[in-house]
Structures are given as structure tokens and as C-alpha cells.
Write a structure and sequence with these properties.
Distance between the termini: 51 Å
Strand content: under 5%
Helix content: 55-70%
Radius of gyration: 22 Å
Largest sheet: 2 strands, antiparallel
């Protein structure tokens, strides 16, 4: 009982810490109020609640979706562990939340239901956050309180201010996904929709956008991510293996496109070519191939990167995804272990599974954050 009490105290402490760090991050991103400023006040901290409350609500509903579905199937789990991240650098104050499965799931149906429940529940919250955010946009002049220097350019400031930003300026532009495009086109007042560079100043849009990013990350149809459980349930072990491998390799190819080029300085290539081979070999071990085949595929992928960079020098991927590729390849894995009970899913579950895959498509941003 003591260990159980210690675990609950730890989880409560992590939640409170994450609440504080996300609120600090919200005040910093939205209003430019950093805790490291001498004049930082309690009201500055409170201003961050407009971001932290909706975003933590999304994370909490997502994780409790898993938790309650696991309880329904009598699968023992922990309550969520929230992962705080101190806003020392530009961050959102958290790396998410997880629950730990403490007993084995024996059937494909259990894997499917528990994996599906979190994204569906969290996505419902994300829709509410985005709908509220897009239907309660302030007037376009709202942005002047953060960037008074924009006012001299008028409401067409985007045509001028983003063209000649100093190199030392930290500037973030938010990418697109299909759901965001839908809300901008059919729900919001077009005259009030913010420029992609300024979404962080709209806390509900910021929280909603991040909710979609987290949803898409979880629904990637790989390994034992939520999307992996869903694809395994829909198609079975063999087809999942193919889909997961293709999705993983596709993300790897897109992430690394343009990172290394035969036109780079030879002294740089001497360093980057062996490092690239080591990285590719490390992540490709997740495919479960022999060492010889893994080395061969690493060399083939490196050759593909070099050829594409030479033939299509303008084609650029999104290198930030390489971090997620590494986490999957090194820690999460690509393949899904077979379940002891392989009963087919009923029609309702199949429909919900396809809905989840559709949610992945409309939530995924090829380049969610563009930092210059």
C-alpha cells in the first residue's frame, strides 16, 4: 500500500508541476511574459491559463480514454504520468502524458479498444477547443499589442514584416493540416484568421493545434503507438508489419530529405556520411532485419538521400521528424507483437478504426513548426 501511495503522490506532483510549466509556457508564448523577466508578476502567470487549461484538458481526456477502456477490459493500468518540461528554452511546458499498462492484454480486441479510446476522446476535446478558438477570434488589430511595430504596415503587415527578419530573431511559423484549413475556410471569419507566424498569440488556437499534433503522433500506424494498435486490429499481424514498415520508412525518407547533399563541402561530407550511416543503421534495427541487411538498407537509404538532393535540390523534408524516427526506431519499435487471441473485430469497431485513420490524415502536419 505504501508503494501505491507513493506512486499516487508522484503522479499528483507531476500533474501540478506540468500545470505550472505549461502555464508558464503559455504566458511566454502568448504574451511574451517570461518568468525570467524581472517584472514578471502573478497576473502574467495567470494569463498562461488560457493555454494550459485547454491543452491539459486534451492530454487528460486522451489518457483517461485509455484508462477507462482498459478498466472496462479488466486490464490493470496506472493513472496518467504527466511529463513536465521546464520552459528554459522555447517549449510548451510538457512532453505529454502516459499511462503504464500493468497487466497483459491477451486479445486483439483489447489492444484495439484501448489504443482507439485515447485518440478518439482527445480528438473530441481538440475539436471543441478549435471550434471555440476559431469562433471567438479577436479583431485583426489584436496583434498590435504584441507587435506594435506592425501597425505602421497596416493589416497587410505580413507582406513586409516576415521578409527581412534579422537572422538572430527567433521566429516560428505554424504549419497546416487539413482540419485547420477546414476551420479557417468554413468556420472562422476570414478577416480575423491570424497569420501562421502569430498563432501562438491565440491561446485556444495554439492549444488546439498542439492537440492535433499530439493526436497525429499517437496515431502514426507504427509499433505499439495508438495507431499501431488500431492498424493491427483492423488488418492483423502480417498486414500491420507491412503498413508499419512503409510508414516508418516513409517518415524517415521525408525527414532526411535535403539534410545531406553531394554538393556539401567535402570536409563536411567526411563527417556527415559516417554519422548518417550510424544513425540510419540505429533506427533501421527496429525493422528486425539481420545486421548485414540492416547495413545494406542504411547504405541504400543514404544513396537515395544523396541522389534526391542532387537531382531535386529544392526538395526539402522536415528534419525535426528525425528525432521522432529515432525514438521509434530505438525505443518504441516498428512491429506489433501478435496477440494470443486473434478474434475478428465487429462492424462497429471496424468503422471506428477507419474513423481514427481519417483523423490521423486530417490532423497530420508535414511540417508543424517552421523555425527561422
Amino acid at each position: 500500500m505504501r508503494s501505491e501511495q507513493r506512486r499516487i503522490v508522484l503522479q499528483f506532483f507531476l500533474f501540478l508541476t506540468t500545470f505550472v510549466t505549461t502555464t508558464l509556457a503559455g504566458a511566454d508564448w502568448t504574451y511574451g511574459k517570461s518568468i525570467f523577466m524581472p517584472e514578471y508578476s502573478w497576473s502574467d502567470f495567470v494569463s498562461g491559463l488560457e493555454f494550459s487549461i485547454p491543452f491539459l484538458l486534451f492530454l487528460t481526456v486522451h489518457e483517461f480514454g485509455h484508462y477507462f477502456m482498459a478498466a472496462y477490459h479488466k486490464v490493470k493500468t496506472t493513472l496518467p504520468y504527466y511529463i513536465p518540461f521546464l520552459p528554459l528554452l522555447p517549449s510548451i511546458g510538457t512532453m505529454g502524458a502516459v499511462i503504464r499498462i500493468q497487466s497483459r492484454m491477451y486479445s486483439k480486441k483489447q489492444n484495439f479498444d484501448v489504443g482507439l479510446a485515447g485518440p478518439l476522446a482527445g480528438f473530441g476535446v481538440a475539436l471543441v477547443i478549435l471550434f471555440y478558438g476559431f469562433t471567438h477570434l479577436p479583431e485583426p488589430e489584436y496583434i498590435y499589442q504584441f507587435h506594435p511595430e506592425y501597425e505602421k504596415h497596416g493589416l497587410n503587415y505580413a507582406e513586409s514584416v516576415y521578409q527581412d527578419l534579422p537572422d538572430e530573431n527567433f521566429n516560428v511559423s505554424f504549419g497546416e493540416n487539413l482540419l485547420f484549413v477546414f476551420f479557417k475556410s468554413f468556420v472562422a471569419d476570414p478577416s480575423k484568421v491570424p497569420n501562421p507566424h502569430e498563432i501562438m498569440h491565440y491561446p485556444y488556437l495554439f492549444a488546439g493545434f498542439l492537440s492535433l499534433v499530439f493526436t497525429a503522433l499517437n496515431l502514426l500506424p507504427v509499433g505499439q503507438l495508438d495507431g499501431g494498435h488500431i492498424v493491427y486490429g483492423l488488418f492483423g499481424f502480417k498486414v500491420h508489419r507491412v503498413i508499419a514498415s512503409v510508414a516508418f520508412l516513409g517518415l524517415l525518407l521525408y525527414s532526411g530529405l535535403g539534410v545531406i547533399s553531394p554538393k556539401d563541402d567535402p570536409s563536411d561530407l567526411i563527417l556527415w556520411i559516417p554519422l548518417s550511416v550510424i544513425f540510419l543503421y540505429t533506427v533501421l534495427t527496429a525493422l528486425g532485419l539481420s545486421k548485414t541487411d540492416t547495413i545494406m538498407y542504411a547504405l541504400i537509404l543514404l544513396a537515395i538521400f544523396l541522389i534526391l538532393s542532387w537531382a531535386l535540390p529544392q526538395a526539402k523534408g522536415y528534419p525535426a521528424w528525425l528525432v521522432y524516427v529515432f525514438v521509434i526506431g530505438r525505443f518504441l519499435g516498428v512491429q506489433h507483437p501478435p496477440a494470443e487471441i486473434e478474434e475478428p473485430l465487429d462492424e462497429k469497431r471496424i468503422i471506428l478504426g477507419w474513423i481514427a485513420l481519417f483523423i490521423f490524415i486530417i490532423s497530420f502536419s508535414p511540417a508543424p513548426f517552421i523555425i527561422k
